[in-house]
Amino acid sequence: MAAEQHDDSATPPGAEVNLAIHRPHSARIYDYFLDGTTNFPADREAAGHALAVFPQARSAARANRTFMHRATRALARGGVTQFLDIGTGIPTSPNLHEIAQGIEPRARIVYADNDPIVLTHAQALLRSSPEGRTAYVQADVRDPDALLDAVRATGVLDFTRPIALSLVALLHFVPEGAHEIAETLGNALPTRGSALVISHFTPDYAPQDAARIEQVYRDNGNPVRARAADEFARFFTGWDILAPGITSTPRWRPEPDAPHVSDAEASCLAAVAIRP
């Protein structure tokens, strides 16, 4: 099937892009952990500091990424055809739209991120199947109302029909107000059958490692807040959590041949829920 590219980016053509490559950025550090190439010396230095205190960081990043794949696949197989992925990060194939459209070619996906370097690679996120559509918006989750306005402006998603909201490895980068932000975003998806997908850094499995990681990211200007299971569960107030419930990323419906990653290595909680 040939890919069709729709230019649905909500960022004006010719907009100034300041990559600030002299400062580490969480998306580029994550890219480094996934063995990507879209990272710079400041990102690699920060990643090295993280690996020094948490050598499992690469395994954790991969476990998180494959959780996203499995969650998207499960929802697409369950009939969800619209996805809003916030905190997209640097494109790493297979991206969310490739997973969803591989099951339902008509699926529509909007990506959102605030890192300018993601914008420079956004064309990779716009290679939709001919039957579906994708779009990218440059927006900050810390201003959820403005983000939602930008998403609606693309015209890609129908907010009267179910939408899956993906907040994968994002909310731990929002030290304050994360629950209120998630609630605002979730309230924009009132339709029964909408879904909420979240993974989140946690201290529950390796508290000393988590504290060291928080310090490394804080020192590099990317504050992180690990949240325990009770705080994580609050993100799903009013939603029906699917089996197997709240668990670590590698334990959420693992594939039979998946590499073994322990809970402590992942240090990340995950859950998928449906709007009743």
Order of helices and strands: EHHHEHEHEEHEHEHHEEHE
Quaternary structure classification? single chain
The description of the largest β-sheet is: 8 strands, mixed
CA-to-CA gap between the ends?
Answer: 35 Å
**Structural class computed from helices and strand pairing:** alpha/beta
Low-confidence stretches: 1-7, 9-16
The gyration radius over C-alpha positions equals 17 Å
3D shape? globular
Number of strands: 10
Could you tell me the strand content as a percent range?
15-25%
Mean pLDDT: 89
Helix content: 25-40%
Number of helices: 10
Give a short synopsis of this structure.
The longest helix has 21 residues, at 57-77. The radius of gyration is 17 Å and the shape is globular. Mean pLDDT is 89; it is low at 1-7 and 9-16.
Could you characterize what this model shows?
With about 280 residues, the chain is an alpha/beta fold. Helix content is about 35%, strand content about 15%. The protein has helices at about 25-35, 40-55, 55-75, 95-105, 115-120, 145-155, 180-185, 205-220, 230-235, 265; strands at about 5, 80-85, 110-115, 125-130, 135-140, 165-170, 195-200, 240, 245-250, 270-275. Strand 6 (about 165-170), helix 7 (about 180-185) and strand 7 form a beta-alpha-beta unit. Helix 1 (about 25-35) crosses helix 2 (about 40-55), helix 2 runs antiparallel to helix 8 and helix 3 (about 55-75) runs parallel beside helix 4. The longest helix is centred in the N-terminal third of the chain and has 21 residues, at about 55-75.
